[in-house]
Design a protein that fits this description.
about 325 residues; alpha/beta; 9 strands
């Protein structure tokens, strides 16, 4: 074999290797395109299933029933002006009432919890604001991913279940009061600052008692509650907190009547906030608000890792790092674990 033939063979081998590389790239691109197409097909299916509810969202249609949901701003105004308490219902609470589980922090079916949640949902107490998620009609204000998640959840049978559970004609408020950041498409910084500033008015110069999970650590590492007059904490189990209900309620009732209770305990918070309101306290179930503030501070547009706080909406977020914070430890007045 001549030298020229060797060079030709070598050139052909190099060309063949290049073709194989290009082919591999094309195969990967084809696979990605297939996956993207499947995702689009799924989105279109969800959109088609939910479209009539979004298009016909006039809240006065005879063919489709919508709950009456007043805005987060109206809820804040009611709380500030009339010193009302707040109970919230999301997918986890509705699932619990139906004998199901959806959230990491409520992993067990509990019939007693289900019954209490039903009682609270249908309460007609003047001093209690009952909030539900504004998922029933138009979704334009939410991010594309949030729209997708809502459409996936709000199947016709779920809507029917909700409407059976809700009181006809009752005025509810928007439970996303405690979720002002990650779900919403509008990430204008001035508007976001105003939202959190308005929420901070709820505990301005108040003596606050946090009823929270042992790994929740509201306000630790940020300034969300810096304007409160004082903070003490009653800790509950990070998951299935309703098991500790009696101890939590007893510990809470040791506090003075003029304190403000701020709760982050999943479905247990809904019941405790209501029961504390019936005892003459003001209690606000603020759920994920502290996490939302952490995500807002990170400025990445959505949910992110917060290693030292229980974060059920981020992969691995239930695995929480230990902290050494003397101020946090000093604030703990009871551990109902």
């Amino acid at each position: 074999m001549t030298e020229q033939e060797v060079l030709q063979i070598k050139a052909l081998e190099e060309r063949l290797a290049q073709c194989e590389q290009v082919n591999n790239v094309l195969l990967r691109a084809h696979q990605q395109l297939l996956e993207y197409t499947k995702g689009l097909e799924r989105d279109l299916q969800l959109l088609n299933r939910n479209m009539k509810y979004e298009i016909l969202d006039k809240r006065n249609q005879e063919t489709i029933s919508y709950p009456i949901i007043h805005s987060s701003e109206e809820a804040i105004e009611e709380i500030l002006q009339n010193r009302k308490s707040l109970v919230r219902f999301g997918d986890g609470e509705f699932a619990a009432m139906e004998g199901q589980t959806r959230a990491k922090f409520q992993t067990e079916v509990d019939q007693k919890l289900a019954g209490r949640l039903y009682q609270v949902l249908r309460n007609q107490e003047e001093g209690v604001i009952t909030a539900i998620a504004d998922n029933y009609g138009n979704l334009d204000k939410y991010t594309v991913n949030s729209q997708r998640e809502i459409r996936a959840y709000m199947a016709p049978e779920v809507r029917e279940s909700h409407m059976r559970l809700l009181l006809p004609g009752k005025v509810y408020y928007n439970a996303y009061l405690s979720r002002p950041y990650a779900m919403y498409a509008d990430k204008d910084q001035d508007k976001l600052r105003q939202k959190f500033s308005r929420l901070r008015c709820l505990w301005e110069k108040r003596d606050c008692v946090f009823l929270e999970g042992e790994k929740t650590r509201m306000g630790v590492g940020n300034d969300l509650f810096e304007n409160a007059n004082s903070i003490v904490r009653i800790l509950a189990p990070a998951e299935n907190a309703f098991h500790a209900y009696e101890a939590l309620f007893a510990a809470a009732k040791q506090c003075k009547k003029d304190v403000l209770f701020l709760l982050a305990l999943g479905p247990a918070a809904t019941v405790l906030a209501y029961d504390l309101a019936m005892e003459g306290y003001q209690a606000l179930d603020i759920g994920h608000l502290d996490l939302e503030y952490e995500w807002y501070l990170k400025g990445q547009g959505g949910r992110t890792e917060v290693p030292y706080k229980y974060n059920n909406e981020y992969p691995g977020g239930e695995q929480v790092e230990d902290i050494e914070d003397s101020e946090y430890e000093r604030q703990i007045i009871a551990r109902c674990l």
